[in-house]
Backbone:
């Protein structure tokens, strides 16, 4: 018995090592798989025409941001109070004139810098949950300790390329200062790229200043921050989001302009209408960034889900959202800008079969659509209200499989495998061929968390289900975590900045 357990442990270690090697080869995915297209040219042109009609006839509300109103008016838009209407084609012309089709987000560790746009795909953790859950502690409000844990887990997960942003909301920290501790955690506990604060323009400025410190005092024109800017759908951009976007654009930092749409509530129920609204709202956000600073990196985002028409609760993994992903991805490509959507999304409260089915149903179209930046790639539960420890490592494990899918079909000489056919006699298995021996270790992606052993071996080793194995995994990852190097002078300057800003900011309720 003990001998078999020893072999099993070695096998699990080898599986984990193989998965790590696969994901560690590159800091982001380069897709060789062509995007899946669902619309012909005339269909895409129709949605573009309808989006321009919305912008021309109905317009967009722009609230609490006089600078945006002034910039849009100066560019040729009709500004009537807070309603902005755009002549047909104006927004598109602003975007296509200066928005980069691809940009590099530099990481503190240059080897972990990512490319966003083109054929690249970058995976980032889930974002914004006020609660966390683990199998032993259950559901509870998130703390700064949880936040740091998830930064560490993302850093230690080879298939996750990006540290993310508000990986959970640390409600034990004051509202006015928690952004400082969150950015500090991304810089100290990871050397992957990270996202910035967007809840106020001043907090975006803090993010930029802390990034300057982390990168040695001078950003030197580099984009080192990519941040999430959400529209207030339907057809509204508010001053809080635009203030943060303005700061980032002015400093040559990137923003993801994303309508947050629950179809039937913040948009019409039909997928084509949702695509039209997403395109209209996102384009206005990107155009704003270009008016602030032509050439500032910007991403067209789409976060779309459906609702239960009886209860109004968000639903995930539905076919309608997949159709929207495919269509809006194609619309972003026609604008020649990077695209963000998708993730391992679900409405389930725990990491169960519902979570797995719904998450897979969202991630597959995310990848096939050709998404460049995948927020919520790991950890999402309960419609985004909860960040799950077990869900995080289960999702991260599956991201390794998508790395294999992104590679497409290998048609190299080795991939064709003709030497194996020539070496092997008909009717004889291929296990002993030279081709198999040369390829067996990395031939197939293999989950490091799933159990494919016999029932007898599974029972002998404790009859552990996926959640039990996931609990052991995240606990082991945190126990073995090693903090990446950070120059002592930078660490001290960062601590000083955080302390000074906390002293300057007013106290607020938790």
Residues:
């Amino acid at each position: 018995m003990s001998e078999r357990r020893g072999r099993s442990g070695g096998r699990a270690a080898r599986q984990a090592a193989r998965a790590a090697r696969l994901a560690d080869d590159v800091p982001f995915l380069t897709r060789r798989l062509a995007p899946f297209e669902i619309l012909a040219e005339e269909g895409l042109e129709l949605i573009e025409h309808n989006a321009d009609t919305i912008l021309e006839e109905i317009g967009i509300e722009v609230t609490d941001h006089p600078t945006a109103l002034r910039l849009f008016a100066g560019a040729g838009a009709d500004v009537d109070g807070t309603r902005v209407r755009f002549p047909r084609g104006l927004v598109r012309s602003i975007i296509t004139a200066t928005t980069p089709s691809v940009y590099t987000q530099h990481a503190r560790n240059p080897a972990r810098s990512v490319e966003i746009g083109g054929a690249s795909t970058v995976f980032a953790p889930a974002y914004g949950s006020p609660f966390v859950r683990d199998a032993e502690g259950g559901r509870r409000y998130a703390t700064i300790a949880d936040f740091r844990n998830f930064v560490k887990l993302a850093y230690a997960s080879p298939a996750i390329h990006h540290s993310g942003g508000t990986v959970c909301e640390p409600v034990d920290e004051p509202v006015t200062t928690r952004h400082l501790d969150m950015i500090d955690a991304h810089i100290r506990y990871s050397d992957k790229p990270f996202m910035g604060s967007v809840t106020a323009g001043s907090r975006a400025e803090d993010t930029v200043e802390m990034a300057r410190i982390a990168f040695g005092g001078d950003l030197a024109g580099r984009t080192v921050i990519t941040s999430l800017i959400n529209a207030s759908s339907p057809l509204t951009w508010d001053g809080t989001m635009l203030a943060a976007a303005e700061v980032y654009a002015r400093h040559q930092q990137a923003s993801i302009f994303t309508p947050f749409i629950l179809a039937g509530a913040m948009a019409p129920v039909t997928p084509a209408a949702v695509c039209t609204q997403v395109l209209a709202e996102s384009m206005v956000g990107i155009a704003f960034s270009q008016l602030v600073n032509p050439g500032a990196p910007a991403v067209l985002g789409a976060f779309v889900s459906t609702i239960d028409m009886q209860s109004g609760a968000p639903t995930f993994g539905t076919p309608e959202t997949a159709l929207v992903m495919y269509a809006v991805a194609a619309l972003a490509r026609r604008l020649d800008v990077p695209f963000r959507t998708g993730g391992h999304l679900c409405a389930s409260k725990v990491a169960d079969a519902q979570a797995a089915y719904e998450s897979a149903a969202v991630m597959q179209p995310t990848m096939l659509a050709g998404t460049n930046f995948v927020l919520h790639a790991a950890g999402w539960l309960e419609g985004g209200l909860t960040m799950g420890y077990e869900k995080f490592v289960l999702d991260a494990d599956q991201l390794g499989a998508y790395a294999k899918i992104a590679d497409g079909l290998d048609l190299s000489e080795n991939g064709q495998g003709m030497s194996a056919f020539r070496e092997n006699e008909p009717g004889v298995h291929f296990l002993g061929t030279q081709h198999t021996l040369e390829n067996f270790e990395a031939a197939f992606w293999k989950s490091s968390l799933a159990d494919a052993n016999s029932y007898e071996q599974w029972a002998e080793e404790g009859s552990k289900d996926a959640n039990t194995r996931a609990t052991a995994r995240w606990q082991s990852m945190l126990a073995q975590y090693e903090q990446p190097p950070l120059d002592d002078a930078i660490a001290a300057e960062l601590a000083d900045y955080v302390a000074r800003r906390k002293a300057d900011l007013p106290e607020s309720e938790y």
